Amino acid sequence: MANLPGGAFFEGQWQTTDMTLEIRDPEDGILLGRVCTSTPQDVRRAIAHIHRHLQTDNWPLRSRRMALENAVQLLGEQSERFSKIIAAESSKTIVEAEREVRRCMETLRLSAAASSELTGETLGFDDSMAGGNKIGWYSRKPVGIVAAITPFNDPLNLVAHKLGPAIIGGNGVVLKPSGRTPLSGLALVQLLVEAGVPSGRLAAIVAGPGVSEALVTDPQVDLISFTGGPQTADRIAAAAGAKKIISELGGNNATIVCPDADAVQAAEAIVAGAFGVAGQNCLSVQRVYVHISLFEQVLERVTAGTKALRTGSKLDRNTDVGPLISEDEARRVEEWVEEAKAAGAAVHAGGKRRNAYYEPTVLTDVPSECRVIREEVFGPVVSILPFIEAQDAIFAANSSDYGLQAGIFTQSIDLALAIADRLHVGAVVINETSDVRIDSMPFGGFKKSGVGREGVKHAVREMTEPKSTIIKLVEPATRWHQLTGTMEGSAS
């Protein structure tokens, strides 16, 4: 692809040696570009350069805000280019890629506006026995250097969700984008520097032996912001030691369809929420619990809607579902579905693989021990299961080790709130599925779904710390005598 940046960025310049990591389109294997295979020494150089910059150069808040506002404008002007990069290197259709660029603009806009979060308040010394003659306040200061590690499925906006808050908070940041989809993140780094972010505040290193370990263990890295899987998160936490970590680790999201729900509305939302980005979305609908009175109707409509989806080329604007990120991932999904079939599951739509494509698939009668129920599928598979009592659906929804988001369909606000209160997840969406996010909301979950919260202003707070300033005042009478004595001495 034309107009791509170099293969890594650190020490204020693009690095173009050792451009040995090939980036290929998962749809057809076409070579899109090459990026650097870096070394742990490169990581240390990148971190040291940012550390020196943070110690010596003042970059005021207003300048940080203006740089992010400039980035929004530039991204709008280059939206077609960025959409093509996303669609080429990832699983997203061109329509989904265009949507991601618009969301990235929103994320950067919100990051600029989050300058208002970097305030503090006065400290209540007057209301403390230890207050004495003191006054004070706290303000929010950057943690220092942020290591930002991002996945393949939203290769632009998830990078922005880490870089934007880090930058407005006054931090330096080292980005490690997915080695499967690094071109979008590298292009965003290029755009941010063009928009006015000092090159000493940013670095981007994609891959290489020992690179990840060097990044998370470096003592000058103050915070790690990671999006990926729980097993990788465990390794990061064990290696990083006593260091602040924000992690978003995926989901196995449930939707509950109550007996008074609008079956048509529910079915349409389930199809839309289960198969976007070929199901490679942490908010994807994976398990649907439908009251037995609506089960056949919802199943029929979901099956029909799924069969109507068009699987094909990402650049065809009529395509609904593109390939998975690799043929290996498609084979994994195929293996999980075959396991469920062997255990007694019925396939109502899909269930077939072609190269990196896996057809959108609807399952019923899936035993709870199967991986398509127990684990995060991260592919275009949804299981529909009946329930009789609400507490049974709640128990089943909560039985997962994940707790990211959930959906409820019902006409009763009382029932909706009662169920929502008992679901152990980070967000409950009423009369929609789990597949809802705005970039300003606190985003994250319970259990294996992560630690901390993203969402721009919430990430800004995670990436800054309160710093108190305290002044001990001289007693007013003493100070008065000091001042008047000085004035009298001067007059004589």
Describe this structure in words.
The mean pLDDT is 95. The protein has 492 residues and is an alpha/beta fold. It is built from 16 helices and 24 strands. It starts with 7 loop residues before the first strand and ends with a helix. The chain has helices at residues 40-56, 61-77, 79-89, 94-113, 157-168, 182-195, 211-217, 230-240, 263-275, 295-307, 327-342, 371-374, 390-398, 413-422, 456-462, 476-491; strands spanning 8-10, 13-15, 21-24, 31-35, 121-122, 134-142, 145-149, 172-176, 202-204, 223-227, 244-248, 253-257, 285-291, 346-349, 353-354, 357-358, 361-364, 381-387, 402-403, 405-409, 427-430, 446-447, 450-451, 464-472. The longest helix is centred in the first third of the chain and has 20 residues, at 94-113.
Descriptive labels:
492 residues, alpha/beta, 7-stranded mixed β-sheet, 6-stranded mixed β-sheet, 40% helix, 21% strand
Chain-wise SSE layout:
Blueprint: E1 8-10, E2 13-15, E3 21-24, E4 31-35, H1 40-56, H2 61-77, H3 79-89, H4 94-113, E5 121-122, E6 134-142, E7 145-149, H5 157-168, E8 172-176, H6 182-195, E9 202-204, H7 211-217, E10 223-227, H8 230-240, E11 244-248, E12 253-257, H9 263-275, E13 285-291, H10 295-307, H11 327-342, E14 346-349, E15 353-354, E16 357-358, E17 361-364, H12 371-374, E18 381-387, H13 390-398, E19 402-403, E20 405-409, H14 413-422, E21 427-430, E22 446-447, E23 450-451, H15 456-462, E24 464-472, H16 476-491
Parallel strand pairs: 7-8, 7-10, 8-9, 10-11, 12-13, 12-20, 13-18, 17-18, 20-21
Antiparallel strand pairs: 1-2, 3-4, 5-6, 6-24, 11-23, 14-17, 15-16, 19-22
Helix pairs in contact: 1-7, 2-4, 2-6, 3-4, 3-6, 4-5, 5-15, 9-10
